[in-house]
Design a protein that fits this description.
Blueprint lengths: L14 H13 L6 H14 L4 E4 L2 H11 L7 E4 L5 H9 L3 E4 L14 H4 L4 E4 L11 H11 L2 E6 L6 E2 L2 E2 L6 E5 L12 E5 L2 H10 L9 H4 L20 H10 L3 H19 L5 E2 L8 E2 L8 E2 L1 H4 L3 H10 L15 H7 L7 H9 L11 H15 L3
Parallel strand pairs: 2-3, 2-4, 4-5, 5-8
Antiparallel strand pairs: 1-9, 6-7, 6-11, 8-9, 10-12
Helix pairs in contact: 1-9, 2-9, 3-4, 3-7
Bound molecules: pyridoxal-5'-phosphate (PLP).
């Protein structure tokens, strides 16, 4: 119905996934247990990784991966201002100092060519973000990391199913963190996972995600379990529940189909909006990749559109169409300005994107006629044929 509010994102949950959640609820075991283990194995098989740790969120994953690196005060982590605040927040909470490099103006991904100049004697890690599910150029990034002995923690919150030069994100490199938040390409309600090829890091994260206990509850309350445990280190409470994994077990097999549909919708936006002066459209790089199209986020040209991004979002809302803002550049938030001295002008590409970016409706359940509605509303708003 044309009048219904069309959100910018909506999860696609199958009847089988709902049945699995109900079965979990009826099973008598709803927190971390056999379904989480199965989900971890399924992710490991999908991305091609030896070890997967399911967690309560990607934020938790970033916190644990960075904490497990054992950052010392003053240690630096190089990342991008064009990300969700959690990326930088977790560097700070893990004891590090965020050092930023600007992004490319049209992919919004960190400009790998600028990383070398940001490396100092205090640099410990590089933290790229695969923005919207578009892979960062990882070969030169890993070459730099190797040359300087740096860890790489990939913020792959948008990038489950993303491929770089024929390899899935999570299937190569150091450590990756996925998000299963409801807006993401697959969801467990809230949820996330860390994938790593470093067994020691994986062991630390396994400890830290559940109080620093040497044995999780599933191994203590079962028939063959031993009720005693030891605390090896003070840990967090970042475990995923079986109720969440029940959803994930049915989302993961649907992921490639979700990405196919997202790709069709994004391609249609790119094709139709190509001639509109009101938009600057995102570009995809030349290296072989599969974009996961978590977001379709063009940049508004305020002079041609006769309105800025915020006015556009408001006008679309008045037409019953939701849009999203991903993201405002993190270095301009008060904490980061005050604490680290960042200011407007430091990262011009990120700032221009931050001021102009808007996410248009994109989710697997979006029909062609829903998309027609979005395009018609924008055409009417801009007086565009
Ligand atoms: C780039 C990026 N990193 C991290 C996160 C945090 O993910 P979560 O909501 O699962 O904690 C998000 C979530 O939106 C994100 O977009």
């Amino acid at each position: 119905m044309a009048d219904e509010f069309l959100p910018f994102s909506r999860p696609t949950i199958s009847p089988e996934a709902i049945d699995e959640v109900v079965a979990c609820l009826r099973s008598g075991w709803i927190t971390t247990g056999p379904r989480v283990k199965k989900f971890e194995e399924a992710i490991a098989a999908y991305v091609g990784a030896p070890r997967v740790l399911a967690l309560s969120s990607a934020t938790a994953g970033l916190h644990l991966a960075l904490t497990a690196l054992g950052l010392e005060p003053g240690d630096e982590v190089i990342t991008t201002p064009m990300t969700f605040a959690a990326t930088l927040n977790m560097i700070v909470l893990a004891g590090g100092r965020p050092v930023l490099v600007d992004v490319e103006p049209d992919t919004y991904n960190m400009d790998v060519g600028q990383i070398a100049a940001a490396i100092s004697t205090r640099t410990r890690a590089i933290l790229p973000v695969h923005f919207a599910g578009l892979p960062v150029d990882m070969d030169p990034l890993y070459a730099l990391a190797e040359k300087h002995g740096l860890r790489v923690i990939e913020d792959a919150a948008h990038a489950i199913g993303t491929e770089y030069r024929g390899k899935r994100i999570g299937g190569f490199g150091d450590t990756q963190v996925f998000s299963f938040h409801p807006n993401k390409n697959i969801t467990t309600g809230e949820g996330g996972a860390v994938v790593t090829r470093d067994q020691k890091l994986a062991d630390s994260i396994a400890l830290l995600r559940f109080h620093g206990m040497d044995r999780e509850a599933w191994n203590r309350f079962g028939k063959s379990g031993n009720q005693h445990y030891e605390i090896i280190t003070p840990g967090f409470k970042y475990n995923m529940m079986d109720m969440q994994a029940a959803l994930g077990l049915h989302q993961l097999p649907a992921l490639d189909g979700f990405i196919r549909r997202r790709t069709e919708i994004a391609a249609r936006y790119q094709e139709i909006l190509a001639g509109w002066p009101q938009w600057t459209l995102p570009r995809t790089p030349d290296y072989p990749h599969r974009h996961a199209w978590h977001l379709y986020a063009p940049l508004i040209n305020p002079a041609e559109a006769h309105m800025d991004r915020d006015a556009f979002m408001q006008a679309m809302k008045e037409r019953n169409i939701g849009t999203g803002l991903h993201y405002r550049a993190v270095h301009l938030y008060p904490y980061y300005r005050d604490q680290f001295g960042f200011k407007r002008g430091d990262f011009p590409n990120a700032e221009s994107i931050s001021d102009r970016i808007v996410s248009l409706p994109l989710f697997p359940g979006l029909s062609d006629s829903d998309q027609d509605r979005v395009i018609a509303a924008m055409a009417e708003l801009f007086g565009q044929d």
